[in-house]
Amino acid sequence: MNAADKAVASSAKSLPTEELKRIFGSRIRISPGTAPQKSRFVLLWVQQALRVRDNHALAAAIITANTMNLPLYACFCLVPDYPGANSRHFTFLLQGLIDLETSLAKLGIPLILDLAHPEEGIPRAAKEAACVVCDTGYTAVQRKWRREIVNSLSRPMIQLESDVVVPPMQASDKEEYAAATLRRKLTRLIDLYLAPVGTLPDLKNPRKSLKDLPFRPLHSEKPESVLKNMTAFGIQEAAAPLASVPGGEREAWKRLENFLAGNLSHYHDSRNDPGLNIQSELSPYLHFGNLSPVSAALAVMASSRDDPRLTEGAAAFLEQLIVRRELAINFCLHNPACDSPDAVPAWAQESLDSHAGDERPEVYAREQLIAGETGDPFWNAAQKELLLTGKMHGYMRMYWGKRLIQWMPDWREAYRLLIELNDTYSIDGRDCNGYTGIAWVFGRHDRPFPERPLFGKIRPMGAKGLKRKFEMDLYLERISKLQI
Asked: Nearest CA to 397 among 440, 431, 354?
């Protein structure tokens, strides 16, 4: 410990529990523990929220460090064998970490990248920390990490809900039947939570480098080094990185500003048309925490106040950003089977099982499906869009999933293949939104329809419906021009 750290540690104060609760209200959870008598620093575990703006965890960490008169260090644990992730996802992630490292350095907060599983790396890093402050994640693996770390720490862990508008358990303590039931509950609460974090206070004890780092990571690396040679660090190459979709907070705000100035005006009446591609393009940035949903919601609302012509588009976008996205989080929180066929409601399972023996119009090999080489040009285009851009038009995602019900006799196998394809190729795969969207294809958050071959009582979709509603030649033309 150098002289500066000794002086800081000797003057450290107690954890500002009441102040944090007053500021962050029901966004905050503080796990019990005792800070070491001579704590050397506060540790910010960065996991979900890879940004500075509207980051409640970062704000709480700065307040805690200043109150306790301690420096603040940030740590991100990179897991090369993260389930379902590959070089496409890690490229986006590492670009965001490079961006974050620069932004945090300006605040006097060094960021350490540790190649370690969080349940091992964070307790090791926190041995001389007064406390650990972290964001909140909602997938099963994210929740598991936080449970295990809380159980292994002797000092307090402070968790902030920074990647939702309304904290999920404040809206509902059970799995919601559909968007309508959650919408009513969210509507009563949105105004209470739609507030920016505000200007971050200056750190009292800034650190400008990793010199005299008060803990020893398991395997520290610079994000740039990992990005340049991902295979050397054990990262799989199942899907190619995408230069057209760079990660990071700065890029997230560029995309948001472009959306406000362009597609928002027609979002309400054209977002479902695959040929027009009126999308927000924000999903990857929300998934990786480069953009706060609070920031996005406030920006869209401000634009619609300034220009009433954007009111309908803003309402449609907020429905997707808040109601549908937080319905997906509710689903993952309360349904342990959210990423498996067991998530399909009983009525739908029974109906699909009863039609397993129906004659299929076509049956394709797995390799044909992955390559997008079927007899359906619309399905092929949707799959090509996923392979080449890391995303798929929202309306086509529904059709993409429904077609597999028709082609694959075992609907459970179809379900698992959709999860695999989405997790492997979509930049925002391995996400509550993706799991919920696939569950919807098979009847979750939906109702029974009149029974018919292949689909049973599941809502049907077909090529005739696409051609009746949209100029599908525009979609095929757009996809035909795509390149990585």
From this structure: 440
Alpha-carbon distance 242 to 390, whole Å? 8
Rounded-to-integer distance, Cα 354 and Cα 455, Å: 10
Task: Give the C-alpha separation, 41 to 12, whole Å.
Answer: 9
- Below-70 pLDDT ranges, the chain: 1-12, 484
**pLDDT confidence of residue 13:** 77
Q: What is the architecture, at CATH level 2, of domain 341-480?
A: Orthogonal Bundle (1.10)
What contacts 429, CB < 8 A, 6 or more positions away? 84, 89, 422, 423
pTM score, two decimals?
0.96
181 touches 343 (CB < 8 A): no
Q: Domains of the chain: which residue ranges? A: 3-164+218-228, 341-480
d(CA 269, CA 271) in angstroms, rounded, equals 6
* CATH T-level assignment (fold) for domain 3-164+218-228: Rossmann fold (3.40.50)
Q: What is the pLDDT of residue 216?
A: 87
Q: Strand 41-45 vs strand 129-134: parallel, antiparallel, or unpaired?
A: parallel
Structure confidence at residue 369 (pLDDT): 98
Kindly list the distances between the CA atom of residue 141 and the CA atoms of 84, 149, 155, 432, 440, in Å, as whole numbers in the listed order: 12, 12, 22, 12, 22
